[in-house]
Structure of Glucose-6-phosphate isomerase:
Amino acid sequence: MTDLTRLDAWQALAAHAESVRDTPMRALFDADPDRFQRFHLRLGDLVLDYSKNRLTAETLPLLVELARQTGVEARRDAMFAGQPINSTEQRSVLHVALRDPTDTPVLVDGADVKPEIRAVLERMKAFTTAVHDGTWRGATGKVITDVVNIGIGGSDLGPVMVTEALKPYARPGLRVHFVSNVDATHIATTLQGLDPATTLFLVASKTFTTQETLTNAQTARAWVVDALGETAVRHHFAALSTNAKAVEAFGIDPNVMFGFWDWVGGRYSLWSAIGLPIALAVGFEAFRALLDGAHAMDDHFRTAPLDQNMPVILALLGVWYGGFHGAHAHAVLPYDQSLHRLPAYLQQADMESNGKRVTLDGQPVAWGTGPILFGEPGTNGQHSFYQLIHQGTHLIPCDFLAPATSFHPLGRHHPILLSNVLAQAEALMRGRTEAEARAELEGRGLKGAELEALLPHIVFPGNRPSNTLVFRRLDPRTLGMIIALYEHKIHVQATVWGINAYDQWGVELGKRLAGAILPELEDDTRPLAHDASTNALIGLIREWRR
Ligand code: F6P
């Protein structure tokens, strides 16, 4: 892999960054009343306003040139064509095929994957209908009232985030719960108040080997068997997995195993059988609309020119701030309570994908890769960490998300919410100059030493970048578009940085070490051979629980 920083496009951007460092966005807006027209994109009912970024007329062409020189188009096309772009695992990356309703074949090892995808979707639809209409019943003949999805990481975060976001579409009469943490508190508190006779468990695990999920699933199994006997398991458990053997060994009927494939990454899997809890929560039609929205974004990503391509633009802006403005973090700020799990979902999607330190060919990178991603719904975040974004020493580009309409049009709530999101983006961009701050303090009657002492504290440097995504309403289609937008942003950034977004070796070491420590916690006589800190902590735990 060529050294990214030696590419002509990178060098040109470095020089350009220096030349525009002293040009605040406020001046760019003052000089160009058409700035929004120039720097926004629309796809259906989704608008991306990226005008509040440190962009002059020269910046975008230079960034697009970087995308060209790093092969963004070729790698995008390779993904859609089913080539094994996840090179460390020799796997294709085909979450895009899961939501493609067309018959156009997509080949993996010479075989079209579309018929299998369609077959699983059909089975998911039939199962969803059976649970909803009461054809599928528990062991005692009672209708299912509660579904508990047991999974973690990609087998949890996407479905949780989407079912929360689409609550206005929830089917009455069926509650969907999620258990992920191996901390017994999670499953114990979830099962409180549930009736085994009316509860259906979905054991969601791509590998069906994940310790947390299997531990929780065994606890759930014991809970059902204690109440209803061994034969009840096949009425109360379904599996979402790629591992048919392990599912069968657990005792789950193969007829209620919904499969997917190794070319679906865990954090990209909500479109597969892993989406079954979504379909159960909101109905299969709404689940299909979610897939269709994602497919619309896929088509846009595949066909739009790079300089009019939403995921490409978002990705390049991140590269611009990380590479040339010293940004290490990125905030996702949905002004929609329904999207309260979006930051958590994107933490995995982005940081597990692009938290990488070596290039595709194994060389340590000499540039920054994925940012630290965090967020909270607005306006809560405003009363928490926004102070640092406005006046702290770190540059933190922000994504604001805002629905034009609310499902709960109560009083003035929604206009107040929207006034806040627009004001935050404006404040970050404009800031407050010393002259403005001085005038304000004088207006408040302050003068002399008192005014001078307060002045520096109320100056805002401004020039802090943000994107604003506005949409008509948070319906399944729009949500599908937004999720796919972020997936492709992550893909493009990985391409520019020359890293593999689709493996996650970094999470393995801790798992292995936990496997060694577990028997030491279960048997106090085992000798300890860790570092002094780990030995001491194990000793303390042994002592305190005696
Ligand atoms: O955290 C590591 C990881 O492998 C994730 O990538 C994945 O989403 C999660 O564990 C759960 O894995 P599985 O679906 O195989 O249980």
Remarks:
- The chain has 23 helices and 13 strands.
- The mean pLDDT is 97.
